[in-house]
Amino acid sequence: MVLAAACALDMMAMEVGTSPTALSQLQSVQKVMAMPTVGAAMGQVGAFYTKVKGAHSLLEWALSTAEASVSLAAATAAPYVASPLAAGDAKMAAVIDELGRRVPIVNEQPKVIVETTKQAVIAKISPHVNKVFVARAAAEQRVHSLKELSWAKANALLSTAYGQRALHGVDAGACYAMKLLDQYLPPVEPQPDHTGQSLPYTTCDIVEAERDPALHTVQTVGRLSAVAARRVWANLAARVNHLRANGVELDVRRYITALLAAVHLATVTSEQQQQERDTDTEQPRPAHPAPTPHAHPAPTSHTAPTSPTSPTTATKLKSTPEAKSTKPEDSEQ
């Protein structure tokens, strides 16, 4: 605080044109002002102060009055604080000298300090940054090696008899899928080549299966997916343009709203049917009584049949015409 006040007083004294006060003659203040960094900072602050002071006449009058008051107060208090300031000045000068010996960079120019600090930071951070880059390079190399190994394994697998069958199956499936696309989603505007003829599917730039089976498979599937996507969107755009040409304006918002309503109706109907099925399965079914075996009583000579609905053999014989015709004969005898 003492050094800052001394520097401010010195600057104000130079501004008003008076002789430096006793505070500005302190050794500590002179040593601090001799540092290039502090000198440059004081120069910047002095330039800013002068610019602000000269911006307006009212500011110039106010600041000049403040400078005169501070100078008068310092000059009045100087005889009373001379002894304590001398003792403090000696200690501060010793501290500044010790700082200059331990940190010699404080006596260098600001540009030198900035460059030295930059180099020190780079030297401190560079090992860690280099470790990160080395780890990243090693990871990329490992991934690349793993990719090459996986690719080689895939090629070796596709080179076997079963792999060749699978490869031929993929090619045949791709050709059949292209035929279906040509039939149901024909190209709206075929892209001609340099000769003016449309490019067929077989002339696409795909690696031969003998050279790289894995790459051939990937390119075949990718080509089929790209062609299918282009066909779908091209046909959809052509239909929309056709409807617009015929005066039918397709409202996408209404179409999406109707589609969502249909999906919601289907969901609600499905849930209702599921609830009805669950209710039917939860209802108890009527239990059928198990058939009990009929016990046939043992025939006895003294008991007659108890069931009137089931006639015996004798009753059946008596009811026949032959039995009736023989009764009188028996009675005559």
From TrEMBL:
Location of the protein in the cell: Lipid droplet
Basic and acidic residues bias (residue ranges): 274-285, 319-333
Region feature Disordered, mapped onto this chain: 269-333
Biased composition annotated in UniProt, kind: Pro residues: 286-296
Keyword annotations of the record: Lipid droplet
InterPro entries from the UniProt entry: Perilipin
Gene Ontology BP terms: lipid storage; positive regulation of triglyceride storage
Family designation: Belongs to the perilipin family.
Protein name: Lipid storage droplets surface-binding protein 2
